[in-house]
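cache lookup: miss for this entity combination. No prior model stored, computing from scratch. Input as submitted by user K.M.:
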Amino acid sequence: MTLDVLYFAWLRERIGLPRERVETDAATVADLVAELTAREDRYAVAFQDLKALRVAVDQELTDFDAPLGTAREVAFFPPMTGG
Amino acid sequence: MTLDVLYFAWLRERIGLPRERVETDAATVADLVAELTAREDRYAVAFQDLKALRVAVDQELTDFDAPLGTAREVAFFPPMTGG
Amino acid sequence: MDIRVQAEPFDAGAELNRFAARRGDSGAVVTFSGLVRDDGGLRHMEIEHYPGMTAKALTEIAERAQARWDLRDVLVIHRHGKLRPGEQIMMVATAGAHRAAAFAAADFLMDYLKSRAPFWKKEVTGDGAEWVAAKDTDEAALDRW
Amino acid sequence: MDIRVQAEPFDAGAELNRFAARRGDSGAVVTFSGLVRDDGGLRHMEIEHYPGMTAKALTEIAERAQARWDLRDVLVIHRHGKLRPGEQIMMVATAGAHRAAAFAAADFLMDYLKSRAPFWKKEVTGDGAEWVAAKDTDEAALDRW
């Protein structure tokens, strides 16, 4: 499947791009993270500590073990600091 | 001693005046209430239920057993409803 | 600290802007506005107060809030006299470096102002006039602090 | 309900007045304003957000507040982009018949907005730029509700 993968805040800066299209057969968010991490060092460094990251699938906050199903957009980012 | 005695809200309406000068030897607020109550029915009716009233001596909230000491102003009123 | 007791209307929005601009080191501003509710039957409200005591009581309440929380500034405005439905009765504002203090202090100010500041409300409807009764829950709210 | 995500500044006072006038049956209006603190060193703040998700997340949070408390109206405005010291970052307002609901709902909105709405703050000083770290206490604050 083809996913839009988005990065925000310092994660965006470390990976060096705000979004990309990813061809993947990942079944869960964690699988997708494993695929990205295997690609290049900058991904491995960025995703080093998953506890310091949050994920949204199709614009809903979820967990790293969430299934991707028919998802079209996955976003990774640090804990939010609004308000 | 001479006291200014003030009444507010429905107490003012029942007694029929907002303030009066009172010559008294009352030692406490309760003594003053007893004197006023003895005067006329409208006072007796107004002061019937002290639990429904509050008192301030020299513009500080206090209790009915507070001493009058050198007080100059005593105010009686129902529980406040500001805000 | 800014404490005002007045018969005249005030502009809550203008007060908020002035208050927020006054202390640039405040990150958090909380306001509470009390309005005369337009519930159909009410013609107007009359607010009586105890002129000699009112400003003093409000100042004491505001000082208590400032002693208890880390606040940059406090504003209290309370009207008396005749007020029509939709009009602003009163307003408090608190400014702090952090939101928790600003929220708690505004909540505290309202609880104390409700039961410890010498104001009495009378509601005038087509059927006559009636003094608003204090609620037991208002007195009980003070135990939270 | 009125939810706005925008780069443009807004006038908190004008928003309060408009909000308070909109529902005449509300006796109590609470606002929270978040401002860029002027602590000397800060040049400006940059707020990044997730455009596709932001309005949706804010709407969900506001709906949760409305389901939980008896509110007449809710307003949320949150800016993104470049903000200078003293500028308004965001504002929430709640209107209810009674003060307890208006206070609790505004406090709840702020706690959720802080940790569940997709905004990220970066502070730019003379020494460089740094992303603001989320506080453990912000996440813990959600357990209150």
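stored under new cache key. Residues 1 and 24 of chain B are 6 Å apart (CA to CA).
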